[in-house]
Recover the amino acids of this structure.
């Protein structure tokens, strides 16, 4: 069973060090939005699998961030803070949205038992439908694996930050990530 | 020594064009290869652009928000 990512206060963030340089940037809020929106939207889209919902979530995440900037302490980066809000929002949306049934094997062990050739590169012939294929693959994975892969794919996040976002140790992240990659590769090959 | 350099240049160019064409066809057939899942997801992220409507909606929503005592960047950076 995937460990749920929970946080009582969706905008609570750890202590911060200030970075005053961004204050002098022209249109700083726009700059901030442009810098992070692609990542927030992508995480939302690939988590909930619906572009309209992902759009709503992205809007709400930035609005929440705007409302609760006082709570941003900056020990973690701004991206991490936005991701925390996004993850919570996605989970609330998924809980509330009963109509959509997420297809998940829900059994990481079953996936682990199947050998997938993870050493060879992932080959893609049809670029046009790549997004759809990735979505289908991610939806077949346990929630925890999906989230880990999406977070680790962001090069701005350290393993420590991914661990903090998923409320586990860095070692646990590394271990699960190995299985998550294997599960993804197996599903991706199935969907080719 | 070639007695007909323009003809030679033409042949050379023709060969180059054929090679490029062949390369393009091969590229289409081979598609893309990603060394890791993360690399694939990063590529997918780059192809996924947030709809511009989000920024517009956000702007309207932020204008409706009650004005904070301090501007947002002072709240964020000016502690």
């Amino acid at each position: 069973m995937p460990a749920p990512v929970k946080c009582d206060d969706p905008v609570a963030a750890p202590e911060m060090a200030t970075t005053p340089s961004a204050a002098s940037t022209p249109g700083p809020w726009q700059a901030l939005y442009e810098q992070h929106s692609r990542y927030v939207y992508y995480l939302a889209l690939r988590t909930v699998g619906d572009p309209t919902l992902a759009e709503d979530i992205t809007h709400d995440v930035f609005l929440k961030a705007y409302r609760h900037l006082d709570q941003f302490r900056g020990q973690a980066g701004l991206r991490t803070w936005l991701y925390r809000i996004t993850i919570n929002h996605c989970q609330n949306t998924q809980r509330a949205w009963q109509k959509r049934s997420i297809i998940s094997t829900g059994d990481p062990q079953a996936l682990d038992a199947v050998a997938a050739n993870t050493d060879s590169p992932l080959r893609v012939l049809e670029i046009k439908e790549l997004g759809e294929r990735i979505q289908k693959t991610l939806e077949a994975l346990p929630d925890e694996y999906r989230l880990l892969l999406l977070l680790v794919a962001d090069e701005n996040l350290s393993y420590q930050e991914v661990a903090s976002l998923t409320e586990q140790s860095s070692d646990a992240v590394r271990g699960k990530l190995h299985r998550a990659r294997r599960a993804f590769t197996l599903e991706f090959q199935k969907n080719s | 020594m070639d007695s007909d350099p323009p003809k030679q240049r033409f042949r050379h160019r023709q060969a180059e064009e054929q090679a490029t064409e062949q390369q393009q066809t091969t590229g289409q057939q081979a598609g893309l290869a990603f060394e890791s899942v993360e690399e694939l997801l990063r590529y997918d992220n780059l192809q996924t652009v947030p709809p511009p409507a989000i920024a517009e909606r956000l702007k309207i929503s932020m204008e409706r928000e009650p004005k904070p005592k301090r501007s947002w960047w002072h709240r964020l950076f000016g502690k």
